[in-house]
Amino acid sequence: MSAARVGVVTFPGTLDDQDAARAVRLVGGEAVPLWHADRDLKGVDAVFLPGGFSYGDYLRCGAISRFAPLMEEIVPAARAGLPVLGTCNGFQILCEAHLLPGALTRNASLHYVCRDQRVRIETADTAWTNAYEAGQEITLPVKHGEGRYVADAETLAELEAQGRVVVRYVGGNPNGSLNDIAGVRNEAGNVVGLMPHPEHAVEELVGAPGTDGLGFFTSVLKKLVDA
Amino acid sequence: MARVIVDVMLKPEILDPQGQAVARALPRLGFSGVSAVRQGKRFELELDGPADEAAIADVRKMAETLLANTVIEDFTVRVEQ
């Protein structure tokens, strides 16, 4: 069987696409570069929206990227069940595109935060976290200035009741996000967004703070093989 | 030709740490009597034609689609005289 093909999207200003592609290859997948201006998903089995500062964060983080030609392909594919993961700026884009509820706003401290962050995987019931166990605590890097997750009270209650909070900060909230939310999923569980960076925690050599992030990539590959 | 102004503000319930920082800076600079500050964005749109009802409806659509994120922001549209 050929390797699962995971598309890694590059917008103008994306920074983490090479790390994301490397993480995909490390777990045995094929990383397929996807260009924001193309209307072609190249038949990939899943899509990774990496972090960075797409379009310079102009207007709002992710607000311009949302309307990129490639997004016109990704949005309907995601609604139809294509596994999509967005980290950091990718999470912001998924919220702007209304594939995920809520929004990411300026950190409450107003400071850009870059540190190793303890988080808890709240649900293994997604395409991207099935290799973890619910309740498992891991450490991932965070690095963002606008990661404070907000949603109206009704949406928050719904997310909590339906188990759609995927990742939660523990041992200190870096940005003041509501309910300590670090990441959420859509109803079907194929679309996940989170502020921390699993793709930066995949190798012992450079993977400060470790390899806790690998599970996101093994999860989606496992899901694709099982499908 | 007409100029239409779109003001975008964070919804009242959304924390505005930038506005708070400005509010905290004012007393340090010797300004008093301000109890709160909220920071927003102002867009000035130059229209090709008159700001008639259809044009204003279009601008509202632009605001909903791109200028504001209605999950966290409210907007107002007005024609500049």
Automatic annotation (TrEMBL), chain A:
Pathway(s): Purine metabolism; IMP biosynthesis via de novo pathway; 5-amino-1-(5-phospho-D-ribosyl)imidazole from N(2)-formyl-N(1)-(5-phospho-D-ribosyl)glycinamide: step 1/2
Main localization of the protein described in the UniProt heading: cytoplasm
Active site: residue positions: C88, H197, E199
Compartments (UniProt record): Cytoplasm
PROSITE patterns: GATASE_TYPE_1 (PS51273)
Listed InterPro entries: Class_I_gatase-like (IPR029062), PRibForGlyAmidine_synth_PurQ (IPR010075)
Keywords for this protein: ATP-binding, Cytoplasm, Glutamine amidotransferase, Hydrolase, Ligase, Nucleotide-binding, Purine biosynthesis
Catalytic reactions on record: L-glutamine + H2O = L-glutamate + NH4(+); N(2)-formyl-N(1)-(5-phospho-beta-D-ribosyl)glycinamide + L-glutamine + ATP + H2O = 2-formamido-N(1)-(5-O-phospho-beta-D-ribosyl)acetamidine + L-glutamate + ADP + phosphate + H(+)
Signal peptide span: none
Pfam families reported for this sequence: GATase_5
Enzyme Commission code(s) on record: 6.3.5.3, 3.5.1.2
Quaternary structure, from the entry: Part of the FGAM synthase complex composed of 1 PurL, 1 PurQ and 2 PurS subunits.
PANTHER family linked: PHOSPHORIBOSYLFORMYLGLYCINAMIDINE SYNTHASE SUBUNIT PURQ
Function as written in the Swiss-Prot or TrEMBL entry: Part of the phosphoribosylformylglycinamidine synthase complex involved in the purines biosynthetic pathway. Catalyzes the ATP-dependent conversion of formylglycinamide ribonucleotide (FGAR) and glutamine to yield formylglycinamidine ribonucleotide (FGAM) and glutamate. The FGAM synthase complex is composed of three subunits. PurQ produces an ammonia molecule by converting glutamine to glutamate. PurL transfers the ammonia molecule to FGAR to form FGAM in an ATP-dependent manner.
HAMAP family: PurQ
Full protein name: Phosphoribosylformylglycinamidine synthase subunit PurQ
Organism of provenance: Nonomuraea corallina
UniProtKB/TrEMBL annotation, chain B:
Domain of life: Bacteria
Coiled-coil features, chain-numbered ranges: none
Gene3D superfamilies in UniProt: Phosphoribosylformylglycinamidine synthase subunit PurS (3.30.1280.10)
Pfam families from the UniProt entry: PurS (PF02700)
Location, primary (coarse class): cytoplasm
Entry keyword annotation includes Phosphoprotein: no
Matching InterPro entries: PurS, PurS-like_sf
EC number(s) given by UniProt: 6.3.5.3
Reactions the enzyme catalyzes: N(2)-formyl-N(1)-(5-phospho-beta-D-ribosyl)glycinamide + L-glutamine + ATP + H2O = 2-formamido-N(1)-(5-O-phospho-beta-D-ribosyl)acetamidine + L-glutamate + ADP + phosphate + H(+)
SUPFAM superfamilies xref list: PurS-like
UniProt keyword terms in alphabetical order: ATP-binding, Cytoplasm, Ligase, Nucleotide-binding, Purine biosynthesis
Enzyme class: ligase
GO MF terms held by the record: phosphoribosylformylglycinamidine synthase activity
Cellular compartment(s): Cytoplasm
Nucleotide-binding is among the record's keywords: yes
Pathway membership, UniProt: Purine metabolism; IMP biosynthesis via de novo pathway; 5-amino-1-(5-phospho-D-ribosyl)imidazole from N(2)-formyl-N(1)-(5-phospho-D-ribosyl)glycinamide: step 1/2
Subunit relationships: Part of the FGAM synthase complex composed of 1 PurL, 1 PurQ and 2 PurS subunits.
HAMAP family (alphabetical): PurS
Family recorded in the similarity comment: Belongs to the PurS family.
PANTHER family the record matches: PHOSPHORIBOSYLFORMYLGLYCINAMIDINE SYNTHASE SUBUNIT PURS
Primary role: Part of the phosphoribosylformylglycinamidine synthase complex involved in the purines biosynthetic pathway. Catalyzes the ATP-dependent conversion of formylglycinamide ribonucleotide (FGAR) and glutamine to yield formylglycinamidine ribonucleotide (FGAM) and glutamate. The FGAM synthase complex is composed of three subunits. PurQ produces an ammonia molecule by converting glutamine to glutamate. PurL transfers the ammonia molecule to FGAR to form FGAM in an ATP-dependent manner.
Protein name: Phosphoribosylformylglycinamidine synthase subunit PurS
